[in-house]
Every structure is written in C-alpha cells, then in structure tokens.
Amino acid sequence: MPRLKNQKLSQTVVIPYKPRYPQTLIHDALEKHRFNVLVTHRQMGKTVCAINHLLKSALKNQRPAARYFYISPFLKQTKLIAWDYVKRFTAPLPRIKLSESELCVQLPNEAKIWLLGADNPDALRGTYADGVVLDEYAQIKPDVFDEIVRPMLLSREGWALFTGTPKGQNQFYDLYQQASKAMAVQSSQWWCGVFPADQTGIISETELANIKAHTPEHLFRQEYLCDFTADAEDVLISLSDVIQAEERKYSSSEIRYAPKIIGVDPARFGADRSVIFRRQGLQSFPPEVFSKTDQMTLASRVATTIDSFRPDAVFIDAGCGGGVIDRLRQLGFDVIEVNFGSSALKTGQYANKRAEMWGEMRKWISGGGALPVSAQLRADLCSVRYSFDAAGKMKLESKEELKARCGKSPDLADALALTFAMPVLKRKSEISSFAQTEYNVI
Q1: What are 301-307's contacts with CB under 8 Å, separation 24+?
Q2: Where are the beta strands (DSSP E) in 167-215?
Q3: What is the CA radius of gyration of the chain?
Q4: Beta bridge partners of 260
Q5: Helix or strand run (H / E) with residue 313
Q6: Beta pairing partners, 277
Q7: Among 89, 314, 362, 425, which one is least packed by beta carbons within 10 Å?
Q8: For residue 302, which of 285, 280, 284, 327 has the smallest C-alpha distance?
C-alpha cells in the first residue's frame, strides 16, 4: 500500500492498494517517464493500475490547484467502472470531497481528479492538466489527444498514459509504433510496455487454455496475447506459431546428430543491436545481444562463442559485418559472409537471400522448431510483412520500410534467420565419435 507524505497534508496518507506483478513493474516505469503506452491483455488490471497512478501523482503534487483527468471512450463506461475504483481507493483518505454529478474527487491536498468520457471531448477544452489517462485508447478518436489533451499538458508539462488492448492496426497501434521508436531516442521521456496473458501469470494456465478453446483464434491472439496483427494477412510469421515454438524443448540426445550453426548480425546503426544466435537442428538457444559494441569487440565475442559451441558453420551478415568477418579470419576461424540482397538458392521461390532465410525460418518454426522465450525475439519475428513480386516469388518489406514502421530493426530475428543461409551438414568426425560411443556402450 503506497504511503505518501505531502507538505500540504497533516498526516501520512495510505492508499488501500497493493500492486501485483506486472503492476509493480508498470508503476515503476510510469513514475520515470512522461509519456507511456501500456498494452495489456483482458483482466490484467490496467484500469486499477491507472487510477492508482492518478491518485498517487495527485496526492504527491504540491502545486496549487493540481488537476488530473481519466478519460475512457464513453462517459457511461467511465462511471460504471472507473468511478467505482476511485471511490473504493479514496474511501479511507481524510477530507476527500466526492461529486457524483461531476465525477470529480478533491483530495486532502486540494488536488482534483475528473473522470470523463471521450464522447464529449469539448468538456476538456480550455483547461490544463498535470496528468491524463486515456483508457481503451483504441476506441478514442485520435483528435481527442492531438487537439484537446496535448495542449492541456503544455503549461504544467504534464504526463500522459495511454492504455488498451489491441483491436487491429488502428490509432492505438500507430501510437504503439511511435512510442517504440521514441524509446530509442528519448528513453527518459517515452516508455512502452506490452503484457500478454501467457507472460503475466494473472490468468491461470488452465483458465487461459479454456478461454483459448472457446474463443476464435484471431480474437484470442488479439485480446489475450496482445497481437496487433491478429487480423493482418501479410505478416510472415504468426504469433501463435512463435508461442508454440517457445513451448518446445529438445533434449541433447534428441538433437546431437544435428549440425550446430551460429548466425551473427552486427549492428547497422547506433540504436541497433549486435546479436549472436546459436541453433542445433530443431533447438535454438538464447541469443547474445550487445548494444554499442564495436566490431573488434564483437569479433572477440563471436570467437569465444565458436570455441565453446564448436559450430559446423558460422554465417555473418556481410552488410555491416566486414570488420568482424576479417578479424575472425585473421584469428583462423572459418566463417561465411552472407549478403542479404544476393540470389536465393531456391530461385523460383524467393526473390532474394533475405526472403529465403526468413521463409525457411518460418518453415522451421511451424515444423517443430524450438525458440527461447524472449519478448524481444517474439516482437522481431512477428513484425515482418511479406508479398509477392511479378514473378510470384516471395519478398519481404525492406529493412528501411520496417524500421520506419516499427522504429527498430529485427536484429534478433535476423541473426536467427542467418542460421538458415545455406544447408549445413554435421562434421563427419563428430558423427563417427557418436557412433563409436554408442557401440562401446552396447
């Protein structure tokens, strides 16, 4: 329960609220950033989280006449859900004043919180705000923030929290993409959090399985897995396939005859990540991810991974990996450079090598591949769109288009895709060793 002390208050104020995971993580992020985009599954408790963030912010505010606002798509919805939460969590507080007619609460330090519906946005014009929550933003017209709320925040440099559950690729999706981009360049100002039901633990596995069994797949992916692309037909790798791959795991005995492969994607720009990905047959392993790492340091990291993993092939993106490739060859390592724009081996099926690697990776994922559980990898894999050229060959949207749309390069997925650059066979010496060992055991 948050305990707050404000110079305007004559006593410590205790809000009767005990956040749970991931609310604890969310509150920590909200207090550190001015603009926040929160994407959650149904029944995660985002409205409770938002109301209590408003309350804590308002109670700590020592400015005169502090003003805060909670806005949901419809006034009736606001009154039915959020207003009850406000009354519940302010009930033990001293000297509060509630107005049922205005849906307003005045707190002990005289800060006020209004609850409104976006169906009457003109009620907000001409005022200021220290903080605003826009709940279920997918159902709120974009001009409510652009034309009304954003100007309210100017004079007090107020904060804004946008929350919701995906409903296709609408303005909430656009805002999510913008926030993802902004985090890379304004990390102190912007935060974006995504919390699907299979990762929060709020809904039990049994109940979630029951919901999945009785809910259309696209709706389940949208409402419970926070998938903005649930209705999109041009996404190469589906979220459901990735989740299934995350649930698989193979023992060392099941994959020991499969070749070991390393994919390395060196960083392209300052905000991009350098990634080393290991795979053996149907099993992939957690990637090594580095930020702001120079090519000589990355080459050293790759060398260490080669020594420990003993791969049958190492594929490195030649686009930005020239220095890494040269250094590793100087050290005596046999590495293969891959040009993403070069011709595919399956020339009749893919437009270029990049499309081929991603296409073969998709087949591997849907055909039994096992992925490490990683929110970053999941997002990367499910972000790429595809189409077909005039000759009927599959092609991917360019990296420039993807980065403009999503704000980042899919570095983790690209590194894994590199492990599919060419067919690889297991070294004969290791196969012979396995055979001899098994013979001796018998």
Answers
A1: 301/276, 302/262, 302/264, 302/276, 302/328, 302/333, 302/335, 303/328, 303/331, 303/333, 305/262, 305/276, 305/278, 306/262, 306/333
A2: 190-195
A3: 26
A4: 280
A5: strand 313-317
A6: 263
A7: 425
A8: 327
Tokens 């300052």 locate to 270
Residue 286, preceding bond cis, omega within 30 degrees?
A: no
Question: Strand 97-99 vs strand 104-106: parallel, antiparallel, or unpaired?
Answer: antiparallel
Reported as a single tens digit per residue, the pLDDT across 207-245 is 999 999 988 788 888 899 998 877 677 889 988 899 899
Nearest to 84 by CA among 70, 95, 64, 68: 70
Domains of the chain: 3-200 (3.40.50.300), 233-418 (3.30.420.240)
**DSSP conformation letters of 357-390:** HHHHHHHHHHTT-B----HHHHHHHTT-BEEE-T
Rounded to whole angstroms, the Cα distance separating 171 from 127 reads 25
Greatest pairwise CA separation for the chain in angstroms: 85
DSSP 286: P
114 sits in which H/E element: strand 112-117
CA atoms within 13 A on the CB side of 50: 33
Contact 165, 223 (CB under 8 A): yes
pLDDT above 90 for 298: yes
Contact 192, 203 (CB under 8 A): no
SS3 for 200? helix
- Burial string for 41-53 (b: 16+ CB within 10 Å, else e) reads beebbbbbbbbbb
Rounded Cα–Cα distance for residues 223 and 136 (Å): 12
Structure tokens of 6?
Answer: 């404000």
- Cα–Cα distance list, 121 to 111, 134, 195, 215 (Å): 22, 12, 29, 34
Q: Which residue has the tokens 């949208």?
A: 222
Residue 180 tokens read as 């993802």
Nearest C-alpha neighbor of 265 from the set 327, 310, 315: 315
C-alpha separations of 332 from 163, 303, 306, 307, 329 in Å: 53, 10, 11, 12, 5
Query: Both tokens of residue 322?
Result: 């020239």
- Summarised one tens digit per residue, pLDDT across range 146-205 is 888 999 999 999 999 999 998 877 788 888 888 888 887 888 899 999 999 999 999 999
